[in-house]
Amino acid sequence: MADDNEWDVEKYRNDYESDDHWELKRTFIETHKNKFDEDELICLTQVFFNVELLGCKYNTETMRQISELSKGIVEKYRNSRKNTLKRTFIGGADAAKNKVQRR
């Protein structure tokens, strides 16, 4: 457990992060700041970010831990994104097939 909870959360904001993404990341950090050492929490935060925003998958135990830690945090973000434009990615083979079939 972290002994020193006075470290600066703001130093972990990346220049390329949108305000929405930073808010999600900052909330995750601040929610769990008293439960983990700084280095461990920042690693968990990056995993959370990768899972939620990039769709990455990790081993079962890590996914379970991130799911537990994100409860009450991620729902607000997901609800705020419900009415936004969503990207759909398709594989290269499917894109080529659609082009040939003129879809």
Automatic annotation (TrEMBL):
Stretches assigned to the XRN2-binding (XTBD) domain: 9-93
Organism domain of life: Eukaryota
PROSITE patterns found in the cross-reference section: XTBD
Protein name: XRN2-binding (XTBD) domain-containing protein
Organism annotation: Polypedilum vanderplanki
